[in-house]
């Protein structure tokens, strides 16, 4: 029986999730998107080249619900020749609020989506990964620069994304003996469609942002997706337990502060 090497991507209907699907389709037989709302992704997938779109399927799934994830696992493993190769925990989201404004229910909801869901998903797929005959198996968790730096306005999200980094290291330590690697990709602000709309309505948003990015621009979705594809590939088999920022240099330091004291034309 031919082996069907599978990549599972949570939060698969967003711009980043779809970009990851596009990139992983080059090295996997089947891409399965898990999302609570698949409708908005269908047209995007149809616009992909046929050789990519034919590999992508979707399962409606609330990734904060362990029972729903268990059903998704059963569906995926029932595919003929199913062999799990890559799990990408990409689901996440936040709303701007100060710590003072954050309510207990809002805090729990953001922790659930941005941290608990990654644990639930890994827990659901762990046995399938352990038993998979794939020679290059990996878990890639999408964190954020917010999980590395302290920030204003996203207290629960930042806390969850920081926790996700350490959760990933735990996977790396405990599951490396099964040939499973676990790594983190931590994007900064990414040029998604939502950000494009914000910038069109308020061009100053980008001017205020870019001073914090040494490259002077936001990261593109394909730049995030290509790093995920690299970490999932045979080119990264020695990389395990790392957090790789894809942020244009945001987490490298504090350029606006340095410039305020600098007299060199290079600052």
Commentary on this structure:
The radius of gyration is 19 Å and the shape is globular. With 267 residues, the chain is an alpha/beta fold. It has a single domain, classed as 3-Layer(aba) Sandwich (Rossmann fold), CATH 3.40.50. It starts with a strand and ends in a 6-residue tail after the last helix. It contains ten helices and nine strands. α1 packs across α9 (221-231), α4 (66-77) runs parallel beside α5 (104-131) and α5 runs parallel beside α6. A seven-stranded parallel β-sheet has the order 3-2-1-4-5-6-9, sandwiched between helices. The model has no long low-confidence stretch (mean pLDDT 91).
Task: Map the helices and strands.
Blueprint: E1 4-10, H1 15-24, E2 30-35, H2 39-46, H3 50-53, E3 56-60, H4 66-77, E4 82-89, H5 104-131, E5 137-142, H6 155-175, E6 180-187, E7 190-191, H7 193-201, H8 204-210, E8 219-220, H9 221-231, E9 243-246, H10 255-261
Parallel strand pairs: 1-2, 1-4, 2-3, 4-5, 5-6, 6-9, 7-8
Helix pairs in contact: 1-9, 4-5, 5-6
Number of domains: 1
* Total beta strand runs: 9
CATH superfamily: NAD(P)-binding Rossmann-like Domain
Residue share in helix: 40-55%
What string gives the helices and strands in order?
EHEHHEHEHEHEEHHEHEH
Radius of gyration: 19 Å
Helical/strand content category? alpha/beta
| CATH architectural name | 3-Layer(aba) Sandwich
Physical arrangement of strands within the biggest beta sheet: 3-2-1-4-5-6-9
Q: CATH class, please?
A: Alpha Beta
Anisotropy-based shape: globular
Number of helices: 10
**Low-confidence runs of at least 5 consecutive residues:** none
Main beta sheet: 7 strands, parallel
In terms of DSSP E residues, the strand content is 15-25%
* CATH topology group: Rossmann fold
Mean pLDDT: 91
Determine the oligomeric state from the structure: single chain
Q: Report how far apart the termini are.
A: 60 Å
Keywords: NADP
Domain Ketoreductase: 5-151
Pfam families: adh_short_C2
GO molecular function, one term: 3-oxoacyl-[acyl-carrier-protein] reductase (NADPH) activity
């Amino acid at each position: 029986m031919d082996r069907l090497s599978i990549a599972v991507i949570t939060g698969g209907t967003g711009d980043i999730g779809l970009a990851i699907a596009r990139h992983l389709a080059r090295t996997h037989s089947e891409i399965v998107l898990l999302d609570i709302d698949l409708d908005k992704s269908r047209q995007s997938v149809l616009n992909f080249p046929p050789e990519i779109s034919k590999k992508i399927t979707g399962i409606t799934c609330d990734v904060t619900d362990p029972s729903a994830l268990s059903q998704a696992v059963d569906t995926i493993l029932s595919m003929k020749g199913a062999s799990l190769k890559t799990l990408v925990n990409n689901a996440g989201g936040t709303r701007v609020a100060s710590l003072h404004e954050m309510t207990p229910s809002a805090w729990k909801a953001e922790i659930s989506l941005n941290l608990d869901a990654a644990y639930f998903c890994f827990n659901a797929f762990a046995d399938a990964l352990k038993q998979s005959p794939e020679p290059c198996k990996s878990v890639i968790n999408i964190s954020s620069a917010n999980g590395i730096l302290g920030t204003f306005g996203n207290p629960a999200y930042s806390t969850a994304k920081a926790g996700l980094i350490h959760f990933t290291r735990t996977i790396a330590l405990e599951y490396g003996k099964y040939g499973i690697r676990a790594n983190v990709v931590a994007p900064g602000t990414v040029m998604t469609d939502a950000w494009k709309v914000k910038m069109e309505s308020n061009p100053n948003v980008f001017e205020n942002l870019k001073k914090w990015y040494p490259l002077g621009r936001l990261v593109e979705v394909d730049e995030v997706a290509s790093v995920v594809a690299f970490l999932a590939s045979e080119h990264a088999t020695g990389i395990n337990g790392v957090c790789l920022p894809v942020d244009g240099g945001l987490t490298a330091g504090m350029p606006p502060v340095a410039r305020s004291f600098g007299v060199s034309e290079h600052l």
